[in-house]
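Tokens for chain A. Residues wanted.
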């Protein structure tokens, strides 16, 4: 059997785990395609986040392109829980089975460029 070139339509799973803190309304997240012209997904279009709950979503992003995941916090303090400092959240991003981010400290925003086309 011949070795065929890799399937350029292949996609790889990216999973977003979001544990909200006490200020879920500050959080926005979206994914754009290569070039940033098309929004593939927008968190706020899907769900109204509640405080102190874990959400997860998996997307199969094109392996041979460059997709961008952006998570923003309008409070600028990430998922650290605000002033009480107790009820902090967390963001974990898993791309192709590897954890590429695992921290509540997203500041005002974090951006992940995913794929060899980046
Ligand atoms: Ca915040």
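Reply:
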């Amino acid at each position: 059997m011949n070795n065929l070139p890799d399937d350029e339509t292949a996609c790889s799973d990216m999973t977003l785990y979001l544990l909200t803190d006490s200020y879920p309304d500050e959080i926005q997240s979206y994914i754009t395609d290569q070039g940033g012209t098309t929004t593939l997904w927008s968190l706020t279009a899907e769900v109204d986040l509640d405080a102190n709950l874990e959400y997860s979503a998996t997307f199969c992003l094109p392996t041979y392109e460059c997709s961008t995941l952006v998570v923003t916090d309008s409070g600028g303090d990430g998922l650290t829980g605000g002033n009480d400092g107790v009820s902090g959240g967390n963001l974990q991003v898993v791309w192709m089975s590897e954890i590429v981010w695992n921290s509540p400290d997203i500041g005002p925003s974090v951006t992940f460029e995913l794929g060899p086309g980046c």
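The chain is about 5% helix and 45% strand. The pocket of calcium ion is lined by residues 23, 26, 73, 75, 77-78 (CB under 6 Å).
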